[in-house]
Design goal:
It is found in: Cell membrane. With about 500 residues, this protein is an alpha+beta fold. The protein is built from 18 helices and eight strands.
């Protein structure tokens, strides 16, 4: 039975300190992402127990609640409504402890009795929770999460335009609907042509600047007129540096804007701050960032191709094995700039098909659990409901609902992903690259977007072989080594 989105939203908000404790609400394909003013006010254990919540990834003020595809959209809408209509918490009022009722003096003696002792104990508990959370929120993880926050809102457009690009490619190859393909090409390509602007807007929003100013500076990267600008003795090319240049330009714009806000007199702020914020980062972008980001992008593409052609099987094994832990930590979206850079350079990203093998290992592991634990009806029901999403490349329901709670099956799923990645990487060493023309789907949903240096037919064959390898190894490893003891049967009773 499907959980009511409004009830789920209410339960989630009650366990993160209430609507007033939420400062922003976003979501991706499977996760509700909340920024909390006071993380100590949230109760992670109680949040995990909410029906419909598959998992929680908490790091400082950034909380990700895994709800699964479909459900996340409805719950996010209900949470957004509750947050925007809730009265703000007074700045002087501390956040209530999760599950705490109204404050009362009952039981307090003249020496600061039971109520004061409980308050002090609650305060100590909150401090311990916050220390543990800060220890987990390392600067590196925090930086990756902020980069991910820039790109997560772009995922729906990336998926939609990617699917259309794949459909358009199929029509072109088949020679069908020649009157429609130019229109489909324009619709599918327009977003990618201007993605730098959207990256600039989201970067400024994430780092505390004015979104439209971040977009204005990032737009310099893709403006055709930059071809007339000479930097380091060469003419710039529109789009040089891609999303990396746009990200750096917009981040610089937020720093300049904040510097101006604290120094420009109020009467001149409306004129000078936007002008300086666009001018200074714009010049730095033209005469430094675009060239530098272009060099980094070129090096990224060269390194990826070298890695696959020389150590393809090993590289595929490592990438396939490590991707599920990245998904578990919510850091996988930080790879989007690398995919976008590779697509901009060579028309496809060779990393996405390799990473997609992790999902194949997860599916194989889930099937093995389904077979071995045939008397565990609730778990088998969870697997049946989550498996279709897993086959389409959405792994969180299987991760948080099946393999991670069981422990060993998560590791054996990683083994399946490693085997699939090694399979695809091995063929890259032999000269057959497999790439995806767009970012977003994986699993079976990636087939329409596949291409490579030997055409889509070879890419589909290698990718399909990798999926089958991931399924098989994930299943076998989990069936043989995924359990510490033999599953109980009715004969054991």
């Amino acid at each position: 039975m499907r959980n009511d989105p409004a009830s789920t939203a209410t339960a989630v908000l009650a366990r993160v300190g209430g609507p007033a404790n939420v400062t922003s609400v976003t979501h991706c394909m499977t996760r509700l992402r909340l920024a909390l003013a006071d993380p100590a006010a949230a109760d992670e254990r109680a949040l995990r127990a909410v029906p419909g919540v598959l998992g929680v990834v908490a790091a400082g003020t950034d909380w990700q609640i895994v709800l699964g595809p479909g459900a996340v959209d409805a719950v996010t809408a209900a949470v957004t409504t509750a947050v925007t209509t809730a009265p703000a918490r007074p700045a002087s009022a501390p956040a209530p402890a999760p599950g705490a009722g109204p404050a009362t003096d009952s039981g307090a003696g003249p020496d600061g009795g039971t109520a004061d002792q409980e308050a002090r104990a609650a305060g100590q508990g909150a401090l311990v929770k916050e220390r543990l959370r800060r220890r987990d929120a390392t600067p590196f993880k925090a930086a990756l999460r902020r980069v991910a926050n820039v790109f997560v809102p772009l995922i729906p457009a990336l998926i939609g335009c990617g699917i259309l690009a794949g459909l358009n490619g199929l029509l072109l190859n088949a020679g069908l609907l020649p009157g429609l393909t130019p229109a489909l090409s324009a619709i599918a390509s327009a977003f990618m042509a201007l993605i730098a602007v959207f990256v600039g807007v989201n970067t400024a929003k994430e780092f505390g600047g004015t979104p439209v100013l971040g977009g204005a500076v990032a737009a310099v990267v893709v403006y055709p007129g930059v071809a007339k600008v000479t930097a380091f003795g060469v003419h710039l090319a529109p789009g040089q540096g891609g999303v990396l240049g746009a990200l750096a330009a917009a981040f610089l714009a937020t720093r300049v804007e904040k510097w101006c806000r604290g120094r420009v007199p109020g009467a001149l702020d409306v004129l000078l701050t936007p002008t300086v914020t666009v001018l200074v980062p714009g010049l730095v972008t033209l005469y430094g960032l675009m060239y530098a980001a272009g060099a980094v992008a070129t090096a990224t593409g060269t390194a990826a191709n070298w890695l696959l052609t020389t150590t393809g099987a090993v590289a595929g094994l490592v990438l396939g094995a490590l991707f599920l832990p990245l998904v578990m930590l919510g850091l996988h979206q930080a790879l989007i700039p690398l995919h976008a850079t590779l697509i901009d350079q060579q028309g496809y990203t060779v990393l996405l098909p390799l990473l997609a093998m992790a999902g194949a290992g997860q599916v194989g592991a889930a099937l093995a659990v389904y077979v071995r634990l045939r008397h565990d009806v609730p778990l088998r029901t969870t697997i049946r409901s989550a498996l279709p999403a897993g086959l389409l490349g959405v792994g969180e329901p299987l991760i948080y609902g099946v393999s991670l709670p069981l422990g060993r099956p998560f590791l054996t799923a990683c083994a399946g992903g490693a085997a699939g990645g090694a399979f695809v990487g091995f063929f890259a060493m032999l000269g057959t690259e497999v790439g995806a023309t767009a970012i977003g789907p994986s699993g079976w949903a990636l087939f329409p977007l596949l291409t490579g240096n030997r055409g889509p037919g070879a890419a589909v064959a290698v990718y399909g072989g990798g999926l089958l390898t991931g399924y098989a190894v994930g299943f076998a490893a989990t069936y043989l080594f995924g359990f510490t003891h033999r599953p109980r049967t009715p004969a054991d009773a």
